[in-house]
Amino acid sequence: MQGIKDWIPTSEKVQYIQSLLRCGFDTIDVGSFVSPKAIPQMKDSAQVLASLDLSATQSKLLTIVANLRGASDAVKHDMVDYLGYPFSISENFQMRNTHKTIAQSVVILQQILELASKHDKEVVVYISMGFGNPYGDPWNVAIVGEWTEKLYQMGVKIVSLSDTVGTSNPENIDYLFSNLIPAYPQIEFGAHLHTTPTTWHEKVDAAFKAGCRRFDGAIQGFGGCPMAKDELTGNMPTEKLVSYFSSVKANDNINTMSFESSYNEALKIFTKYH
User: Fold this and answer.
1) Which of 82, 89, 107, 210 is the most exposed place for a label (fewest CB within 10 A)?
2) Is residue 138 within 8 Å of residue 92, measured between CB atoms?
3) In 3D, which of 165, 226, 229 has the Cα closest to residue 195?
């Protein structure tokens, strides 16, 4: 929702998230504690959280934070389990995304980890530009490995490799996950993949076969990164993930009837607001 200009009323956000909480997903990304000037759509995240009914769900809640102030706001909410922190290994993208250098971001992440630990929250670090870099910064799989080691030393337990602008392919997905997962058994690795309509299957298949079991999705691929050059590149469609896991007989605990209802809710919201 963050890239949508029209204001989506808080009640409609709550209704949509409530429908997702019935589906059986492990974690739902419910909002962002970020600057309302930068992302006006997310300024009601505290109200959204306060309005959710969690009595009939096992799903955990995640909110995105970009700095210590946002993390301080997020940890006030008991129902939040995870703080998601976007950490780019591209100096250019980190500046674009958070107006911080990588070195500054490391300091902020350390502060967020300490704060999260005090409030019994877990931090999910998204390594953006995890699969390539279109901005001319140095990138190779060794750099991703080096940053994974640094994050591990800092105490990060969940690392989501993020294909922020759709540069991943089955080869680098397979290489990274099949090397990192055995090397860091204490870390839960996730795949935050962006894709075009024709390449989703090969990406998911490569990550799953390489041992990844945490996948991010958005219904119909709505959203995506505003920096991506190709307008066909969106988030990984959740319905594609659900169909893939069904085809490989993976137990994903998804209630298909509830998911169908959420899918319809998503269509209503994302066709109404632009």
Assistant:
1) 107
2) no
3) 165
**Which helix (H) or strand (E) is 160 found in, with range?**
strand 158-162
218-253 confidence digits (pLDDT tens): 999 988 654 455 566 789 999 999 999 999 999 889
Domain ranges of the chain: 26-249
Dist. CA 84–CA 27, nearest whole Å: 11
Flag residues of the chain having pLDDT under 50.
226-227
Q: CATH classification of 26-249, choosing from 3.20.20.70, 3.40.50.2000, 3.40.50.1220, 3.40.50.1820?
A: 3.20.20.70
Token digits for 272? 């109404």
Pick the closest to residue 107 from 64, 162, 68, 148 (CA basis).
Answer: 68
Q: What angle do CA 89, 93, 98 make, to 5 degrees?
A: 100
Give the residue among 77, 185, 83 at the shortest CA–CA distance from 126.
Answer: 83
Residues contacting residue 83 through CB under 8 Å, at least 6 positions apart: 62, 63, 64, 65, 71, 74, 75, 112, 116, 121, 122, 123, 124
State pTM to two decimals: 0.93
